[in-house]
Amino acid sequence: MTTPAHTTVGIVGGGPAGLLLARQLHLAGIDCVVLEARDRTYVEHRQRAGILEQGTVDALRACGAADRLDREGLIHDGIELRWNRRSHRIDFPALTGGRRVWVYAQTEVVKDLIALQLTDGPPLLFEAEVTAVTGAETDRPVIHYTHEGIRRTLTCDYVVGCDGFHGVVRSAIPATELRTAERTYPYSWFGILANVPPSCDELIYAHSPRGFALHSMRTPTVSRLYLQVPNGTDPDSWSDTQIWDELQSRFAIDSDWKLTPGPITQRAVLPMRSFVTEPMRYGRVLLAGDAAHIVPPTGAKGLNLAAADVIVLARAFADWTATGTTAGLDAYSGTCLKRVWRAEHFSWFMTTTLHTTPDQSAFDTHLQLSQLDRIASSPHAAAELAENYAGLPVG
Ligand code: FAD
Ligand code: DHB
């Protein structure tokens, strides 16, 4: 496929943010082009997030990308927290006035959006690696990219960087115009996918003296589990038996609940980071999703934040093309950053409340356990967790 030399909105990156933005713009009659560095198979199989908030589901439905999600997605009304060998359920609808979440993997969201885009436009080029974006401060920013071994340019009215944390668009903004805030963590997540029905109906987040563990799922027959491990852990250094035994002991409670092991089909170690770039716009270059901000995964905010950014952005572009107003585009960064910082706090809170390290002080452990006890005993504390987890309103 070749691309035009000019487009209204040039989108760098065909992850969830870029694909959802393209679909929304297309339905609003705004032309755009998506350039994705990797091939289709890679993008469709990259194992990542698994939980969708109501706002994300609504946006996918509004752009006709939710048929399979509505058939196959698992609706969850709560999560279970475990600590000190006991458990407590957080009931989302009861605590939030009816909100809930969907278990539907990011891989499937991406597959659904790609299938729509390839049949119904706008152009989506795989293996089109963007090398630079120039002219951010002009009326015609330019995307420089390589496709099929040929160097090309795409002139745009606006460029949106949906190219993830390691993307190139952020560097089109002069460093003097950006402020960044960052935090790293002394642990990573060891994630596995296993061909075994989940041992629970709802997700389990477990605090244990041996470290954090999370039991999630992909389908009624595929489980997704995570173990906190030290940074730099080699996933192949653990045997399957070691993984299941460790999970079993971190989830242990005083009941006859048991984790059912099964064949592990994928394994990977994921580092964790909190990161925010401000502002999310410079001239005619805008950033969305992981290109602008990263959260540690505890609480499942990353994909939903990316979706929230592009929902706000698509509305702003629709206003601009309909009336010529740039008010929405001007407000984009401020609107999104308010939500981003809330999610940053929640993800940090979930991470630091639930993860333990061998060298942490007794004081820190007591603070964690006291906070978990408070969530179990106070509907207000539980509601605070539930509202953030189920997702705050978009926009
Ligand atoms: P991405 O999904 O990163 O998409 C960016 C796209 O841009 C990619 O397809 C990339 O190939 C492309 N790209 C990059 N550079 C270029 C270039 N130069 N030219 C063209 N294209 C380019 N969140 C959770 O909530 N739960 C999880 O369990 C979870 N696990 C994760 C595991 C990993 C390993 C990672 C990295 C993230 C995880 N996240 C998780 C976060 C969540 O997946 C992200 O927040 C979400 O993918 C953000 O979507 P995005 O479209 O902004 O960025
Ligand atoms: C999943 C990932 C998360 O980070 C989380 O908090 C819940 C679920 C998942 O991959 O299923």
Provide tags for this entry:
395 residues; alpha+beta; FAD/NAD(P)-binding domain; eight-stranded mixed beta sheet; 11 helices; 19 strands; 36% helix; globular; binds flavin-adenine dinucleotide; binds 3,4-dihydroxybenzoic acid; oxidoreductase
Largest sheet: 8 strands, mixed
**What's the total helix number?**
11
The amount of helix comes to: 25-40%
At CATH level 2, the architecture of the domain at 6-76 and 102-182 and 273-350 is 3-Layer(bba) Sandwich
The rounded Rg comes to 21 Å
Which cofactor or ligand species appear?
Answer: flavin-adenine dinucleotide, 3,4-dihydroxybenzoic acid
Q: Regions with pLDDT < 50 over 5+ consecutive residues?
A: none
What series of H and E elements makes up the topology? EHEHEHHEEEHEHEEEEEEEEHEEEEHHHH
Secondary structural class = alpha+beta
CATH top level of the domain at 6-76 and 102-182 and 273-350 is: Alpha Beta
Q: What is the β-strand count?
A: 19
Q: What name goes with the CATH superfamily of the domain at 6-76 and 102-182 and 273-350?
A: FAD/NAD(P)-binding domain
Task: State the separation between the terminal residues, measured CA to CA.
Answer: 35 Å
CATH topological fold name of the domain at 6-76 and 102-182 and 273-350: FAD/NAD(P)-binding domain
Summarize the structure.
InterPro entries: FAD-bd, FAD/NAD-bd_sf, RIFMO-like. Helices cover 36% and strands 29% of the residues.
